[in-house]
């Protein structure tokens, strides 16, 4: 993303958010494929996360639809990786212990005890 100005990045994010909001799977998949042809998987996943965050504030149904219908599995796996690392770091910084207070199952789902869960959802 080094070649992108903040304006370019904002335009790409708006394009992706609008594609999700159309609820047209072909448009959404085409925008993601175009991004993937120019960016790393991690960068595309990051852009999808930001676009979904924007969408959830304006159209919750489109948010759910996009997750179920548009986002390819390989992007969702990268999103899980990104968010899992973020959750792990946050928990460790708050004094929780991996393997005791939280862990991950074979499918990559983060497992939390009640205290850790409360801490994550409290912000």
Account of the protein in words:
- The protein is mainly alpha-helical and 123 residues long.
- It folds into two domains: 71 residues, no CATH class; 51 residues, no CATH class.
- It is built from six helices and two strands, in the order αααααββα.
- A two-stranded antiparallel sheet has the order 1-2.
- The two termini are 29 Å apart.
- The model has no long low-confidence stretch (mean pLDDT 92).
Question: How would the blueprint of this fold be written?
Answer:
Elements (H helix, E strand, L loop, with lengths): L5 H17 L2 H14 L2 H18 L1 H10 L3 H21 L8 E3 L5 E3 L1 H9 L1
Antiparallel strand pairs: 1-2
Helix pairs in contact: 1-2, 1-3, 3-4, 3-5
Summed up, what is this model?
The chain has 123 residues and is mainly α. It contains six helices and two strands, in the order H-H-H-H-H-E-E-H.
Keywords:
mainly alpha, 2 domains, two-stranded antiparallel ribbon, 72% helix, 5% strand
pLDDT below 50 for ≥5 consecutive residues: which ranges? Answer: none
What's the shape?
Answer: elongated
**Number of structurally distinct domains:** 2
Content of β-strand: under 5%
Mean residue pLDDT: 92
């Amino acid at each position: 993303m080094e070649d992108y100005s903040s304006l370019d990045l904002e335009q790409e994010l708006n394009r992706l958010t609008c594609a999700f909001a159309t609820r047209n799977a072909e448009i959404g998949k085409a925008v993601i494929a175009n991004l993937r042809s120019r960016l790393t998987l991690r960068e595309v996943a990051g852009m999808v996360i930001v676009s979904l965050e924007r969408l959830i504030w304006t159209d919750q149904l489109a948010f759910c639809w996009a997750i179920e219908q548009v986002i390819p599995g390989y992007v969702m796996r990268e999103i899980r990786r990104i968010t899992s690392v973020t959750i792990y770091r946050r928990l460790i910084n708050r004094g929780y212990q991996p393997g005791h207070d939280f862990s991950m199952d074979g499918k990559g789902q983060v497992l939390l005890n009640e205290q850790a869960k409360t801490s994550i959802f409290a912000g």
